[in-house]
Amino acid sequence: MELIEVNTEKCIKCGICIDACPTRALVMGKNGPEAGQPQNCNMCGHCVALCPQAAIDNKNAPLVKQAALKEFPVLNAATAQQFLRSRRSIRCYQDTAVPRAELLKLVEIARFAPTASNRQGISYTIIEDKEILKKVTAVTVEWMESEILKKTISHWSFPIHIRAYREKGLDNILHNAPHLILATASNDLLKGRENTVFSLAYLELFATALGLGSCWAGLIEMCIFAKYEPLLELFNIPQGKVITGAVMVGYPKYRFKRLVDRNPLDVTWL
Ligand SMILES: Cc1cc2nc3c(=O)[nH]c(=O)nc-3n(C[C@H](O)[C@H](O)[C@H](O)COP(=O)(O)O)c2cc1C
Q: Does residue 219 have its Cβ closer than 6 Å to ligand 1?
């Protein structure tokens, strides 16, 4: 198959596929759309997904893999607002493992998030081994202590977390979550971190629909991005890949009763 295949009996030459192609790979020919610059295709599949006639196929984004978008009850604005404002960071978890099937649902959604130039390429490592999780906290605390001594990366909260752990055995790092999900990408992926943030944001929002809670593992990320070997060793990430983000997941112990409030809106119009 060439880049695109057009069913000329169905095609009405509306030109939507050409209009929507982000890399101008398609042009209108005598009998319908043609691939003028097939090498430019970024595999986004918009040409296929937008065609009102299901007349175009693209070998990089096959029609058979794009499920028809059926009518579904779109959230009204009030419900959507409530959904987004009710999602909170969870720092108290039930001592219950989440079944693998549920964790898979999370990463299944995360992989649909948009990526720069549709490069995709985000993988996930799901940690469920309690011993590894305990070590993640222990090693991150050690790293914070060493950073305070070296005075390199200092974060106002490090002493609080260290004291909680050393004096009271409290886990302010992973909050005793039963799972840590790492996003990984090859180290030359275009905008790997930004893509990860989108992907894990999808994951965090979807988690609420499964009755799960999550919290961005920013402190662990700091330790990872500082390339602290004792932590990296625990994750066994394949050569050529890097960790690009981390989120903890589990069943929330408590339910929030109020919607989030934030600073007043700051907006400028030009
Ligand atoms: C990039 C990022 C890093 C974060 N890192 C941590 C973290 O390491 N530990 C933690 O308990 N919460 C972490 N959080 C959660 C924030 O503290 C939390 O979003 C904020 O306090 C607002 O609370 P809410 O999410 O419940 O509205 C992080 C959030 C973001 C966006």
A: yes
pLDDT for residue 152: 74
| DSSP state letter for 75 | P
Regarding the beta carbon of 218 and ligand 1, being less than 6 Å apart is answered: yes
Ligand 1 site, residue 225, Cβ cutoff 6 A: no
- Per-residue model confidence (pLDDT) at position 218: 97
Backbone angles phi, psi at 193, to 5 degrees: -70, -45
- Ligand 1 pocket, residue 246 CB under 6 Å: no
- Say whether both 82 and 213 belong to one domain: yes
If DSSP states are collapsed to H, E and C, what string results for 84-136? HHHCCECCCECCCCCCHHHHHHHHHHHCCCCCHHHCCCCEEEEECCHHHHHHH
Asked if residue 29 belongs to a domain, the reply is yes
Q: What is the CA(152)–ligand 1 centre distance, in A?
A: 22
Asked if 26 and 105 sit in the same domain, the reply is no
pLDDT at 150: 85
Is residue 165 one of the residues assigned to a domain? yes
pLDDT in tens, 10-62: 999 999 999 999 999 999 999 999 999 999 999 999 999 999 999 999 999 99
CA-closest residue to ligand 1 atom 19:
89
- The response to whether residue 200 sits with its C-beta less than 6 Å from ligand 1 reads no
Query: Which positions of the chain have pLDDT values less than 70?
Result: 153
The pLDDT of residue 224 is 98
- The structure tokens listed for 12 are 């009405």
Query: Tell me, what's the pLDDT at 227?
Result: 96
List the domain range (segments joined by +) for residue 172. 77-250
**Residue 89 in contact with ligand 1 by CB distance below 6 A:** yes
Element (H, E) at 249: strand 241-250
Q: Which pLDDT belongs to residue 132? A: 98
